[in-house]
Write a structure and sequence with these properties.
- The chain is of the alpha+beta class and about 140 residues long.
- The protein has 2 domains: about 30 residues; about 100 residues, Ferric Hydroxamate Uptake Protein, Chain A, domain 1 (Beta Complex).
- About 35% of the residues lie in helices and about 15% in strands.
- It contains 4 helices and 5 strands; from the N terminus they run H-E-H-H-E-E-E-H-E.
- It has a 5-stranded mixed sheet with strand order 1-4-5-2-3.
- It is extended.
């Protein structure tokens, strides 16, 4: 039985509205729990004002509370479990600092103006090749 023009329109609008609602819920579910961002702000940046509100001792704690997923490897280059995971690199300002995220514990929160997180493709563009695990850039007050 073919639908009449009177019932086809409302049904299509209802289906479209449901699709938009499902998409909005899916997008909201992908956001990080601790990455509250001011309007117009960058979700991959933790600012000095946000750091002051955290009341933490070092850069590692800042990352742990805002973007904990960056403290872990982004995967492996091989299926072989003996091949180490791809590390996340740490830069202080624009200088390479370490391939061990635990080195962030050596940087006091008082010295940090901001922390910027780079996915692998962004890190390759900004810092050059060899940063497939991404980069945590600590921007200091000095």
């Amino acid at each position: 039985m073919a639908s009449t023009p009177l019932t086809a329109g409302p049904a299509r609008r209802f289906n479209a509205a449901c699709m938009v609602l499902v998409f909005a819920i899916a997008v909201a579910g992908c956001a990080h729990a601790n990455t509250a961002v001011a309007p117009g702000g960058d979700p991959m940046m933790v600012t000095e004002d946000q750091i002051d509100q955290l009341r933490v001792a070092n850069a590692y704690d800042i990352v742990a509370q805002t973007h904990a997923n960056f403290l872990h490897s982004r995967g492996r280059e091989s299926q072989n479990p003996n091949v180490p995971a791809i590390p996340v690199h740490v830069f202080v300002d624009d200088t390479y600092y370490s391939s061990d995220v635990n080195s962030l514990r050596d940087i006091t929160a008082q010295d940090v103006m901001a922390i910027r997180f780079y996915q692998s493709y962004e890190a390759q563009y900004k810092f050059g090749s060899g940063h497939m695990g991404g980069v945590i850039q600590v921007i200091t007050k000095n």
